[in-house]
Predict the structure of D-galactonate dehydratase family protein.
Amino acid sequence: MSKIVDAKVIVTAPGRNYVTLKLTTADGVVGWGDATLNGRELAVASYLRDHVCPLLIGRDPQRIEDTWQYLYKGAYWRRGPVTMTAIAAVDIALWDIKGKVAGMPVYQLLGGAARDGVLTYCHATGEDVPALLDDVAAHLDQGFLAVRAQASVPGVDKAYGVPAKGEFYEPASSAVPEEGHWDTEAYLRHAPQVLGAVRERFGFDFHLLHDVHHRLTPIEAGRLGKDLEEHRMFWIEDPTPAEDQSAFRLIREHTTTPIAVGEVFNSIWDCQQLITERLIDYIRTSVSHAGGITHLRRIFSLAELYGVRTGCHGAGDLSPISLSAALNVDLAVPNFGIQEYMGHTEQTAEVFHSGYTFANGYLHPSDEPGLGVWVDEEAAERFPYEPRYLPVNRRRDGSMHDW
């Protein structure tokens, strides 16, 4: 059996920073993995280059589960975003190799397609309500059947999810963290009005989503969810920080608005209680931050037992390699819910070449063997790494708040 003979870490910044792992076998088969951790990219790059890549040389690329356990249990220091993102990159690359050797797209190796396409939601934003409504209309015209709506909050600068006019949204935008300010009461007054305006203009024939981004207490989140019930939300995302999983029980007691959470989770243990006690409706763990395809399937299998559906994180801070991997899982799992699709910049497309397609509200992974994505290494060299940090938030009194 052909062994792994080379493991290379590529750091590039075509519009935003990405970390990519390239594995090559003795037969010349290449597998690509996404190791991007927004704002902490070089930590993962070093973890891979200095501690993981040397361990991969000479290993059998077909033994995916064994390699996963080797890297997870062998490190002793388990879990955490850096470790699990590094493991994910290896795992994704190995699945890519396995698909190429088998001559099949990865979803075929996962049991084949369980649906014809992957329902996808986009991001609509606006500096005010009229601008948001125009953006929603534009996305509906593009064929999207589900829209996440975010708008600036009056009196709050640097609103989450809202780019400057005409620019691509990139929160990690400076060499030191930008500081924003937050007013919970202003947000709780404004958000129902914004989402109500969307429903008033466009009706209920599409799915409407909204991201709270960890900024409320459980009781505040319950209040928001109750205020939004009349708007029939597909979900509210990350209503409160999830370190205390039991906190979501309080939200459940106050609203029937569906809850999604999990983009910052790294393992099945981060969401075990949320799933088994049915405290959420959608689990949003991403393939690149939760140990790759191998571990993501474990999380989704647990969720299936408790009626929790999937809703993978798919923002532009993950490369097309990650999106391709997510789509292959989405297509195969029985409890799929929806897939985030923010899209990527034109510069990103110069480096990452992918074969997934979008039509009529649905994405479909490439039918090429493996993940159907490859990296132009010469193009990657044209975009050197740029130090960038995610923002931080402060309340009006100057104290730190969740971003």
Remarks:
- The two ends are 48 Å apart (CA to CA).
- The first strand starts at residue 4 and ends at 12.
- The domain at 109-369 is CATH 3.20.20.120 (TIM Barrel).
